[in-house]
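INFO batch 0412 | record 1 of 1 | parsing
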Amino acid sequence: MSYVTHNEETQYMLEQMKAVLAADSPTGYTRHAAALVYHAFEALGFAPQYTNKGGVLVRLSEGEPSESSNGILLEAHLDTLGAMVAQVKDNGRLRVSPLGGMNANNAETENVYVVTRSEKMLEGTLQMKNASVHVNGEYNKTERSWDNLEVVLDEEAYTKAETEKLGIMTGDIVCFDPRTRVTASGYIKSRFLDDKLSVAILLGYARHLSQGAKTKRPVHCHITVFEEVGHGGSASFPEGVSEVLSVDMGCVGEGLACRETQVSICAKDSGGPYHYDVVSGLIEAAKRENVDFAVDVYPFYGSDAEAGLRAGHDVRHGLIGAGVYASHGYERSHVKGMENTLKLLKAYLG
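INFO prediction complete | emitting tokens
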């Protein structure tokens, strides 16, 4: 069984989420997923453009003329974790280097796709070296680190020369299977909900505006492509923007209040506090419209909004997102968390 909804808005977001999750986009290899998002905005009647970095920038609402210098930039990132081929080994297997914060402890045994420079895709699995328990007496004691993992290709390639003959070379991208599922109870399970779930939510908000909803302030949207390495939101600020709101995953874990069914409002993360007035405005909007939310402090986190401030942009900043458990692993959220995030965007910007 799978989740069934008669809410067209939710159905649209789920469809977009599944589409972007299925489009591989490790940091540095995002153009195909960006094209998908670009065309989704076009289909809604907007006029997106690509940034030089390869992100997608689009104006969603003109707002009122008196508010032209008080625009808001919504950001979500399309790039994900992944890996890069660092060496073709003598045994034909691949040593890889992580892209972003991919953790070796939860990457082991995942199915992967190696993308060559000619766009050829070759399947394989990320395994520990000497991965057979019946052969390796040190299996349980071996540290799961990138030095101890390798990609085993699903090809008859047992030497460096045989693997290179397949077209593989150092610098090729390694994409991880997201393993996306939406359960009958509404839970969303997948790698890379951080932050493709939010990309789908912003497409849902764009759909809302395309159907005639108005905003007082000009609203822009930037789908960034280098967030996982820290500079996705550092550039491409449209003229007149005075505030940036990052729509990224909300943290779920011990010591935090947020659940997967809620929208999280971040008051502070490892980069410092978010703008007090923005956080207060988000809380007020959530209370006014009965949005199910939580306010939390994230201990190990950074956002596109902060990247913009560090780049020198004089803007207020905030961060919200649907609750996501097991971040940077096999993540879990809920349809209600997605819906509550959209409700907060409508309440805050309406």
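INFO post-check: The chain has a mean pLDDT of 97.
INFO record closed
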